[in-house]
Write a structure and sequence with these properties.
The protein is α/β, with parallel strands linked by helices. The protein contains nine helices and seven strands, in the order αααβαβαββαβαααββ. The chain has helices spanning 2-6, 27-40, 44-58, 74-82, 97-108, 145-158, 176-192, 197-207, 216-226, and strands at residues 64-68, 89-94, 116-120, 131-137, 159-170, 230-237, 240-246. Helix 3 (44-58) crosses helix 4 (74-82).
Length: 247
């Protein structure tokens, strides 16, 4: 409980905003991000825990582990706690200087066996090499559709055989009735976590220009075309979920 009490509360969208701009991961968002993500993304803490478990299973000795779009480093820290192979190096990348600054503080808060490099860069510019685990935790959906494929192909090339990509995303659904129901359930989830109608609608307006999610089938089709040998949804709660793809 102590942790929750000390978290900065997300009230970014609580007052009427005349002209809602696109959502950006700026200083204001970085400050309230843990609260925002817990109250906005169903199952987030389960996903973070399981990323650590998957990393423990798939990390190979003397390989690189990438957390692309690492924000404050939740997935990075979960992996670092769980990896027990020697010679692994975690590379955590984000293009928001506010996020990177805070991520470094979290990573440096205590010492650990597995070294972590926190890099401020565009994930599209990062070289992926000698990788056994790559994480895209709610990151791919912010790239343009063409960039998504290019990045996934680059990840595939940089993964060692048997390496894993963990991809968490918001999903769209082909069945319109199902899609609307899952969106409504997500909004109920946010209401239950204390967000007002105003906050929900303003956040939706701010994010819809910067985030265009794919369907599960579109993800699977792309994994297949790129050459991954095995891929599946391993977690889903409403219209949010996480998939793995193994080379």
């Amino acid at each position: 409980m102590h942790n929750e009490d000390t978290q900065n509360k997300d009230n970014i969208f609580s007052a009427p905003i005349d002209k809602i701009g696109d959502f950006t991961f700026d200083e204001r968002v970085a400050e309230v991000f843990p609260d925002m993500i817990q109250r906005s993304v169903p199952g987030y803490s389960n996903i973070i825990s399981a990323i650590g478990m998957l990393a423990q299973r798939f990390a190979k000795p003397h390989s690189n582990i990438y957390d692309l779009g690492c924000s404050l480093g939740a997935a990075t820290l979960s992996m670092r706690r769980n990896i027990d192979q020697e010679g692994c190096h975690i590379i955590a990348v984000d293009n928001s200087s506010a996020m990177v600054e805070r991520c470094k503080l979290h990573v440096n808060a205590y010492r650990a066996e597995t070294p972590v490099s926190v890099v401020e860069a565009d994930i599209r510019d990062i070289e992926i090499e000698n990788a056994s685990v790559v994480v895209l935790n709610f990151t791919l959906q912010f790239l343009s559709p063409d960039d998504r494929r290019t990045l996934l192909e680059k990840i595939y090339q940089g993964l060692k055989p048997g390496g894993i990509l963990i991809l968490s995303e918001k999903f769209v659904f082909e069945d319109e009735g199902a899609h609307e129901l899952l969106i409504d359930l997500h909004h109920d989830f946010k209401r239950a976590n204390g967000y007002s109608e105003l906050e929900i609608s303003q956040k939706r307006s701010a994010i819809e220009n910067v985030m265009r999610p794919d369907s599960i089938n579109a993800h699977k089709q792309r994994f297949k075309e790129i050459g991954f040998s095995s891929y599946e949804v391993w977690f889903q709660c409403f219209n949010f979920g996480s998939m793995f793809a193994v080379k």
